[in-house]
């Protein structure tokens, strides 16, 4: 049986913390898409750790962690991260597995990402510049190199061939930064990667399933950044939604049980693109300050706004969400009044569906106003301790979405989570 935890907004919903919390109930935690563009924050022994490539179950004892074929892997980031994780006494030789079909991010992919973004000027996506789009382009273009290729004696020849191809593209962009230092650390990291457990991921996961083991699939980014259903072209390059689990791990759809969607009690977005409920005022500034809304991967300030039920309902539909976890409820503690977006006004007409190109229309968010709870909730341990006004807020969201919030996260700490 496979359960999925994924983001319902534009990323950074708190997936890392939630996966870490739930991992104790599973045998295997697996990443199925995305790459080091992800930044998943968790607290281990009261120390903050940000994971980019390794699944967030890695700190729970006796769990197996799989980097699935749908992921794009930067060996350099992985090596650095393995060093950090091993520093906590985790034995990665025993509990980290990497699918041989996983595509490798090459130094030239990172260079191409940078060159492509620069060429877009003010239309840029706001990519994390980790080489994500060029690597997925080489995957769908059938040119990419995969982890399993590392074990082939012709790997270097294949690398040089692809590098030459990339160089031509870089020349077209007039990109002439020296990336030899990147290449040096890349080859160094490849040697490290070869020492890890490289497996046939699809057999690995299906054998676990046959043995009755429980799998938790960990999403990266968010549903509104999905390559097909997100706010294209301001999206990432993978299927971030639940369907991505099947192709990103090699599991059949009927093996998926719960799809647990994570949403903040408000909304953020980092990078370019449309964001109907964005607050470009002092309220947005306060959300950023209290919520510490700065990117875990790039450090960029996140754009902040009210929760958007049009986008959330869309995400619940596309993913088949069965349970919702609402994070960062405590961030709203300080607000006297809260707003929930219940619809959009597009060209003077009210609607509650995501249009084809959200970036090409003038959207005005329609809000319903709620009283804030205006009390500290970070130390609450049970639902009954939570203020009535918070319960009203939660109940309204449940009713609108037709899917229930099952957990409320009321602080970044590992145990700050309340089951409803
Ligand atoms: P992810 O990418 O979805 O894993 O989320 P990030 O780690 O990028 O961003 C979430 C941030 O919110 C991190 O700094 C977390 O430590 C923090 N966080 C998670 N849950 C809560 C919560 O309930 N309350 C507060 N105040 N912070 C939280
Ligand atoms: P986690 O897993 C938030 C955004 C980037 C940019 C767009 C494309 O931590 O939630 P890319 O590097 O993929 O080409 O960037 O997607 N983005 C994220 N935003 N959280 C993430 O991951 C993100 N990963 C990518 O800011 O707008
Ligand atoms: Mg993040």
Describe the structure.
- 31% of the residues lie in helices and 22% in strands.
- It has 420 residues and is an alpha/beta fold.
- It folds into 3 domains: 2-102 and 198-260, Adenylosuccinate Synthetase, subunit A, domain 1 (Adenylosuccinate Synthetase, Chain A, domain 1, 3-Layer(aba) Sandwich); 103-193, Adenylosuccinate Synthetase, subunit A, domain 2 (Orthogonal Bundle), CATH 1.10.300; 263-419, Adenylosuccinate Synthetase, Chain A, domain 3, CATH 3.90.170.
- The chain has a 10-stranded mixed beta sheet, with helices on both faces.
- The protein is globular and about 65 Å long.
- The two termini are 24 Å apart.
- The model has no long low-confidence stretch (mean pLDDT 97).
- The chain binds guanosine-5'-diphosphate, 6-O-phosphoryl inosine monophosphate and magnesium ion.
- Residues 7, 11-17, 39-41, 296, 327-328, 330-331, 409-412 line the site of guanosine-5'-diphosphate (GDP).
How far from one another are the termini? 24 Å
β-sheet strand percentage: 15-25%
The oligomeric status of these chains comes to single chain
Number of separate helices: 12
CATH class of the largest domain: Alpha Beta
Which residues sit in consecutive blocks of at least 5 with pLDDT less than 50? none
The side-by-side strand order for the widest beta sheet comes to 9-7-5-2-10-1-11-15-19-20
The second-level CATH architecture of the largest domain is 3-Layer(aba) Sandwich
Number of domains: 3
Largest sheet: 10 strands, mixed
Q: Report the radius of gyration as a whole number of Å.
A: 21 Å
Structural class: alpha/beta
Strand elements, count: 20
Share of residues in helices: 25-40%
Bound molecules: guanosine-5'-diphosphate, 6-O-phosphoryl inosine monophosphate, magnesium ion
CATH superfamily of the largest domain: Adenylosuccinate Synthetase, subunit A, domain 1
Shape: globular
CATH third-level topology of the largest domain: Adenylosuccinate Synthetase, Chain A, domain 1
Overall pLDDT:
97
């Amino acid at each position: 049986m496979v359960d999925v935890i994924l983001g319902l907004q534009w990323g950074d919903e708190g997936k890392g913390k939630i996966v870490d919390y739930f991992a104790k109930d599973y045998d295997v935690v697996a990443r199925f898409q995305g790459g080091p563009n992800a930044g998943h924050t968790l607290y281990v022994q009261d120390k903050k750790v940000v994971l980019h490539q390794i699944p967030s179950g890695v700190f729970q004892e006796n769990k197996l962690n799989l980097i699935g074929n749908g992921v794009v892997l930067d060996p350099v980031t992985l090596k650095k991260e393995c060093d950090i994780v091993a520093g906590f006494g985790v034995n990665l030789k025993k509990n980290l597995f990497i699918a041989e079909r996983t595509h490798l991010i090459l130094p030239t992919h990172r260079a191409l990402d940078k060159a492509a973004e620069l060429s877009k000027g003010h239309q840029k996506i706001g990519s994390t510049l980790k080489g994500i789009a060029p690597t997925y382009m080489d995957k769908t273009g059938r040119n990419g190199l995969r982890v399993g290729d590392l074990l082939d004696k012709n790997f270097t020849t294949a690398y040089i061939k692809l590098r030459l191809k990339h160089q031509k593209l870089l020349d077209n962009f007039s990109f002439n930064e020296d990336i030899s230092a990147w290449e040096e650390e890349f080859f160094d990291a490849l040697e490290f990667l070869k020492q890890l457990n490289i497996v046939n991921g699809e057999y690995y996961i299906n054998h676990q399933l046959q043995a009755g083991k429980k799998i938790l699939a960990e999403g990266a980014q968010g549903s509104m950044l999905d390559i097909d259903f997100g706010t294209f072209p301001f999206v990432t390059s993978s299927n971030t939604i639940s369907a991505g689990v099947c192709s990103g791990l090699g599991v059949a759809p009927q093996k998926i049980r719960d799809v647990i969607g994570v949403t903040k009690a408000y909304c953020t977005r980092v990078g370019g693109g449309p964001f109907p409920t964005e607050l470009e005022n002092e309220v947005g500034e306060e959300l950023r300050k209290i919520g510490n809304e700065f990117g875990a991967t790039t450090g960029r300030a996140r754009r902040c706004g009210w929760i958007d039920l049009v986008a959330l309902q869309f995400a619940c539909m596309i993913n088949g969400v069965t349970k919702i976890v609402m994070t960062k409820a405590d961030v709203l503690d300080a607000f006297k009044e809260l707003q929930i977006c219940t619809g959009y006004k597009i060209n003077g007409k009210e609607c509650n569906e995501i249009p084809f190109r959200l970036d090409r229309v003038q959207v005005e968010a329609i809000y319903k106003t709620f009283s804030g709870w205006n009390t500290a909730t970070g130390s609450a341990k049970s639902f009954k301790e939570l203020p009535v006004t918070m319960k009203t807020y939660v109940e309204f969201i449940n009713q609108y979405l037709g899917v229930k919030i099952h957990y409320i996260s009321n602080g970044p700490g590992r145990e700050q989570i309340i089951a409803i």
